[in-house]
Amino acid sequence: MNKVVKNAEEAIKDIQDNAVLMLGGFGLCGIPENTIAALVKKGVKGLTCISNNAGVDDFGIGLMLKTKQVKKMIASYVGENAEFERQLLSGELEVELIPQGTLATRCLAAGYGMPAIFTPAGVGTEVAEGKETRKFIVDGTEKEFLMEMAFDADFAIVKAWKGDPQGNLVFRETARNFNPMMAMAGKITIAEVEELVPLGALDPDHIHTPGIYVHRIFKGEKYEKRIEQRTVRKK
Q1: Can you tell me the distance from the alpha carbon of 143 to that of 137, in angstroms, rounded to the nearest whole number?
Q2: How far is C-alpha 115 from the geometric centre of its chain's CA atoms?
Q3: Most CB atoms within 10 A, among 114, 133, 154, 227?
Q4: Which residues of the chain does CATH 3.40.1080.10 include?
Q5: Model confidence over 54-101: pLDDT tens digits?
Q6: Dist CA 84 CA 79 (whole Å)
Q7: What is the pLDDT of the chain when averaged over all its residues?
Q8: What distance in Å separates the CA atoms of residue 199 and residue 2, rounded to the nearest whole number?
Q9: CATH number 3.40.1080.10 is the correct assignment for the domain at 8-100+150-219
Q10: 157 touches 84 (CB < 8 A)
């Protein structure tokens, strides 16, 4: 089955206002740059974005925050975005901050078809307010765990190094972060790739995300691959 679409604009053609989106990436590494640019151009609003972080002011999800397209941000780290901070403090943006491991596991639960997971992270903190807890025996000791629901995302948008027409994906180095687990979790998964290779060109042992999880794939253009924080050694 050929899942190739022409470009990012075609890939997001049915993303409407108030959609729930998962966006892969860690910091500015492995983010779906082309798809984010297409979303900004399309102007969809009221979005709920699930991502490890919120980009920076002029790159990544920060571009959608700048244009007021994001209603709610679900993330683990947002410390590099001044506009995010402004919107949060002014009450313009709804924010759910969750531990990074919990974010990853809620993605996995959605991909596996599990309704919820139990985690010790957040027990006894503000994270647990209004949520169910249960006690389990672990290594002979009773411990309390917090129930967290699997994500329910309309679309998962990921970025890979290589992909083929059936949607099989290979991620390169650090870009293999939240991308593989989010690709499993969306009702519709959109993948942009640096290289779109012929069917059969990918070694099956090197495929990180099987094409069964991917619904649309396209070759991206002009990747900036910006460094979020550059640190150099003093001479």
Answers
A1: 6
A2: 19
A3: 154
A4: 8-100+150-219
A5: 888 888 899 999 999 999 999 998 777 888 889 989 999 999 998 999
A6: 9
A7: 93
A8: 9
A9: yes
A10: no
